[in-house]
Amino acid sequence: MQQQQQQRRMFTAAFLALVFILAAVSTTEAGKKEKPDKKAKKSDCGEWQWSVCVPTSGDCGLGTREGTRTGAECKQTTKTQKCKIPCNWKKQFGAECKYQFQAWGECDLNTALKTRTGNLKRALHNADCQKTVTISKPCGKLTKPKPQESKKKKKEGKKQEKMLD
């Protein structure tokens, strides 16, 4: 008889443990909010393709570029965007081409120019850019060392002219 009571107690304890576990799991599940299924909007719109920047007047400064994309369900298939073309030496490579330039090289005494090379960093708006560019600029005034005697002679000459006046 004691054995039966012990078995009943074991069965009751196991049953209560099972009920407790089920209650804990259902409470945890109930605390979680179900996220509504978000329907992914699948668009057949293509990527924007941009034209080059066209200046409003002249060959640099403010301008516009046209963008187009394809797709039957696209709300907008064309748009215009403001842009700017630099009014300096960079315009020869295109305003959409950004380069990382090395330091200027030494001055070439034959041409009086110094050069440096730039590697393409990024091309904006699908621009067609050169991978590497080389630019040149004048070295500036080449100073030749003047002998000190000539400066002294000039000063003396000016002093004598003032005395004669």
From TrEMBL:
Domain Pleiotrophin/Midkine C-terminal: 94-158
A GO BP entry: positive regulation of cell division
Pleiotrophin/Midkine N-terminal domain segment(s): 32-93
InterPro entries: Midkine_heparin-bd_GF, PTN/MK_C_dom, PTN/MK_C_dom_sf, PTN/MK_diS_sf, PTN/MK_N_dom, PTN/MK_N_dom_sf, PTN_MK_heparin-bd_GF_CS
Residues making up the signal peptide according to the UniProt record: 1-30
One annotated Gene Ontology cellular component of this protein: extracellular region
Coiled coil spans: none
Record's keyword terms, sorted: Disulfide bond, Growth factor, Heparin-binding, Mitogen, Secreted, Signal
Principal localisation: secreted
One Pfam family recorded for the sequence: PTN_MK_N
Role of this protein: Secreted growth factor that mediates its signal through cell-surface proteoglycan and non-proteoglycan receptors. Regulates many processes like cell proliferation, cell survival, cell growth, cell differentiation and cell migration.
Family according to the record: Belongs to the pleiotrophin family.
Protein name: Pleiotrophin
Organism of provenance: Pygoscelis adeliae
Top-level taxonomy: Eukaryota, Metazoa, Chordata, Craniata, Vertebrata
